[in-house]
Design brief:
The protein has six helices and no strands. The protein is an all-alpha fold. The protein has one domain (28-115). Mean pLDDT is 79; it is low at 2-23.
C-alpha cells in the first residue's frame, strides 16, 4: 500500500512539471574569494566566476568588492578600478554592511585613486 502511494505521488509530481532539471541556484556571494582556498582556477575562469557572482547579486556591495580583489590579484587593477568607479555612482542603491562600505572606500580611495584614476 505504501509503495503504491509513493509511486502515485512520484507520478503526480512528474505530471505537475516538477520533473526534469531543477532551477539553478544563484552562486554564493562568498564564492569569489573562496576560490583562493580551493583548487585553483585559471585567472580568466576565476575572474569570470566573480563576474557571474556580481551579475547574480548586483545589489550586493560585497560581491563587487570581492571581484575587485580578485581582478587586482591577477594584475587587472585598471579594469577592476573602473568597475568600482561604476559601482560608486550607484552606491546608495546597494545592500551593504559598514565593513563592506569601509572595504569599498579603501579600495577606491587608497588603491584606485592613488593611480590617478578618478572614475
Amino acid at each position: 500500500m505504501v509503495h503504491r502511494t509513493l509511486t502515485a505521488l512520484v507520478v503526480l509530481l512528474g505530471s505537475c512539471g516538477f520533473g526534469g532539471e531543477l532551477p539553478q541556484a544563484k552562486p554564493l556571494t562568498s564564492g569569489c574569494l573562496a576560490r583562493f582556498a580551493q583548487e585553483p582556477l585559471e585567472p580568466a575562469e576565476h575572474m569570470a566566476l566573480c563576474d557571474h557572482i556580481v551579475a547574480s547579486h548586483p545589489q550586493l556591495l560585497r560581491a563587487h568588492v570581492d571581484r575587485f580583489v580578485v581582478w587586482q590579484h591577477y594584475g587587472r587593477e585598471r579594469e577592476a578600478c573602473q568597475k568600482l568607479f561604476d559601482v560608486e555612482k550607484a552606491m546608495a542603491t546597494l545592500t551593504s554592511t559598514p565593513d563592506d562600505q569601509e572595504d569599498f572606500h579603501f579600495s577606491v580611495e587608497v588603491i584606485c585613486r592613488k593611480q590617478g584614476g578618478d572614475g
